[in-house]
Model the fold of this input.
Amino acid sequence: MATLSLAASSAARRPALLPPRLLAARAMASSLFGHVEPAPKDPILGVTEAFLADPSPDKVNVGVGAYRDDNGQPVVLSCVREAERRILGNLNMEYLPMGGSIKMIEESLKLAYGEDSGFIKDKRIAAVQALSDTGACRLFADFQKRFLPDSQIYISTPTWSNHHNIWRDAQVPQKTFTYYHPESRGLDFSGLMNDIKNAPDGSFFLLHACAHNPTGVDPTEEQWREISHQFKVKKHFPFFDMAYQGFASGDPERDAKAIRIFLEDGHQIGCAQSYAKNMGLYGQRAGCLSILCEDEMQAVAVKSQLQQIARPMYSNPPVHGALVVSIILNDPELKGLWLKEVKGMADRIIGMRKALKENLEKLGSPLSWDHITNQIGMFCYSGMTPEQVDRLTNEYHIYMTRNGRISMAGVTTGNVAYLANAIHEVTKPN
Ligand code: PLA
Done:
């Protein structure tokens, strides 16, 4: 366990290179904003920018985790199209309340906490609609800073890069905890348990509910039970980032298992939910933040404070995605169609994992690629080095994050052989 190194935060402030033409212009200008340096590129979204700028017909984008069909095209689910048909010409576009759509929140809580959850019946959950998962995390981080100003957040090594930005901007100090075991390409369970034990009592931990990003490595059910037990002993607070419910196993109920275990054990929890991936509503920014409180009175107070944080930032969340989500989840037929479509997406990704591994083996790669099929969710944490990734990009026009993460959602029947061949070329021993 370590305090987040300064390198990560100072990297965020390091200026990106400016073209000479602009450098000269800047040297001459002494204006109000003359000291503003260009921000470095985002390690994930910057990959998309580079991909778009590449004219090569061979280019492949396996950077950002955005689902594509087997022709490499973005997908709008049929259940979403049907919900949009019902909205069109019928529903108004009035402001939502500060806390967002009550219907959408109700449906989101059922997905995360369970259809018949006693916590929902007892009104113990403070919940607001959020600007997708990122917005839910940020609201929570701001809430944490405002009401527990001396607390810290423990974040797994590695994690989704934006987690660090979110808690940094909310000015919550960060610590890291052991998670991944590079040699086995699996979970470092004993390291993880040690760090949980060694953290001061009552610490905040950010946990990925399923389909850990970027590693694709989740604890087993038994391991989750042990983690939950140790959290109880230490009185830690688990905050679950559930950006991929349904994308790990194909079944949203199964993917909520970690959360359900913690609930059974009587924890108070926090949870960020997103419909970006599992409903394909990426750009709609539809999500939910919930905090399980001790009783209804506490939940009312917490919700009112979450709204108070939202009001000066964006006033109230967007309405269209909230309507789509609540229409789908409220209608048994549409919900059934959604469940089928989520499973379809998860299955296609699982199929591509197999295909990538088989192609690498067919090429005679002497390395083990078992982790491609052992890992789950959207990503394969390949084990490739930043230099190998650079070769993939420069020589093969394959775009991915430099930590070696492959978005399996961008792999298709059409590009898997090309991808496997390029990976083989840059990883084969000399
Ligand atoms: N949490 C985790 C663990 C994520 O992987 C992502 C998205 C989010 C939150 C944010 O989801 P949102 O769009 O609902 O706010 N990660 C993506 C995209 C898919 C990104 O970086 O924004 C990724 O490629 O890692």
About this structure: The longest helix spans residues 332-362. Residues 4-14 have pLDDT under 50 and may be disordered.
